[in-house]
Amino acid sequence: MTKLGQWLCGLALLGSAWAALALAPPGLRLPAPYRQALLPLPVYLLVAFGCYSLATVGYRLATFNDCEEAAAELQEQILTARADLRRRGLRF
Amino acid sequence: MAAGGADKFSVLLPTYNERENLPLVVWLLARTFQESGNNFEIIIIDDGSPDGTQEIAEQLEKIYGSDKIVMREIISVLFSSGTAYIHGMKHATGNFVVIMDADLSHHPKFIPEFIRKQKEGNFDIVSGTRYKGNGGVYGWDLKRKLISRGANFITQVLLRPGASDLTGSFRLYRKEVLQKLMEKCVSKGYVFQMEMIVRARQLGYTIGEVPISFVDRVYGESKLGGNEIVSFLKGLLTLFATT
């Protein structure tokens, strides 16, 4: 199954569970407080996911390593390399 | 058993206008492999560069020997990575293949770490990651980093690939694994690298990771614009819907 397929199945499952519980016909209803909590749940989850996403990307952005030493080391090695290659006969 | 045993490592270097960087990359590769004692060869696949890249490659072949440097040219306009690898692999005589960029953003010093990691877990693929451990980048401003982390986050959510850095192109593959994946992958550019990992997972190949540092552009211009982002998203959604 493709990832899209998995998402659609998951959403269909959760969606129908939510619809069944939150929008049930009068005979099969849960007590009112439960239904009131369930009804806006999808929106809450979406917002929660949005916050999680922002927090995660923000954290990862802040902790993105800057490789200062790698750059410095590379610059040194470039000089060594050029000198050595010139010695070996490379015409740049 | 001597260091490296019977393994031979073929490094594929697709190049376009890398006259400045190519000798430096080759020098670093040669030194790295000589120090680690592994048998190697470097395969340069040039896309008809007008700046004399091929001429420099031929000089390098003379200096290092044509068993170590193999120059192959394709005349096509803006080949994709995939085409370059396919061409390159035809000439590869190693049992492991390293793919990397020829512009000094990837440093050959990580290759022995890839090799060590591969042996440690008997992995089919070892992928360099900028996002874990002490991996990182140099030369990126905040905007670039944000785009990178944001894109990676979306990719992780949608594809759950089991690897932290999907668009990275510094990897070690078993040769037969790379060949198998090349047959199956159809995308281009960044998405091609992503597709390789996704398909590898589908086929049950094992993937190890090694933190690497990515040093952006010592010489030359970089290539990330609005077009790239759009085609990345299109490619990502295609992978999402088809794998």
From TrEMBL, chain A:
Signal peptide: 1-19
Main location as per UniProt: endoplasmic reticulum
Pfam families assigned to the protein according to its UniProt record, in alphabetical order: DPM3
Keyword line: Endoplasmic reticulum, Glycosyltransferase, Membrane, Signal, Transferase, Transmembrane, Transmembrane helix
Transmembrane annotation, as ranges: 43-62
Record-level GO BP terms: GPI anchor biosynthetic process
Location in or out of the cell: Endoplasmic reticulum membrane
Keyword Ion transport recorded: no
Pathway assignment: Protein modification; protein glycosylation
Topology relative to the membrane: Multi-pass membrane protein
Subunit composition and interactions: Component of the dolichol-phosphate mannose (DPM) synthase complex.
Family: Belongs to the DPM3 family.
Protein name, entry field: Dolichol-phosphate mannosyltransferase subunit 3
From TrEMBL, chain B:
UniProt-listed GO biological process terms: dolichol-linked oligosaccharide biosynthetic process; GPI anchor biosynthetic process; protein O-linked glycosylation via mannose
Cofactor(s) listed: Mg(2+); Mn(2+); Ca(2+)
Reaction(s) the record says it catalyses: a di-trans,poly-cis-dolichyl phosphate + GDP-alpha-D-mannose = a di-trans,poly-cis-dolichyl beta-D-mannosyl phosphate + GDP
Highest taxon of the lineage: Eukaryota
Keyword Transmembrane helix: no
Main subcellular localisation: endoplasmic reticulum
A molecular function (GO) term: metal ion binding
Localization of this protein: Endoplasmic reticulum
Metabolic or biological pathway, per its Swiss-Prot or TrEMBL entry: Protein modification; protein glycosylation
Gene Ontology cellular component annotations, sorted alphabetically: endoplasmic reticulum membrane
Keywords: Endoplasmic reticulum, Glycosyltransferase, Magnesium, Manganese, Metal-binding, Transferase
EC number: 2.4.1.83
Record bears the keyword Transferase: yes
Segments forming domain Glycosyltransferase 2-like: 10-181
Assembly behavior: Component of the dolichol-phosphate mannose (DPM) synthase complex.
Function: Transfers mannose from GDP-mannose to dolichol monophosphate to form dolichol phosphate mannose (Dol-P-Man) which is the mannosyl donor in pathways leading to N-glycosylation, glycosyl phosphatidylinositol membrane anchoring, and O-mannosylation of proteins; catalytic subunit of the dolichol-phosphate mannose (DPM) synthase complex.
Family: Belongs to the glycosyltransferase 2 family.
The protein's name in its UniProt record: Dolichol-phosphate mannosyltransferase subunit 1
Annotated gene: Dpm1
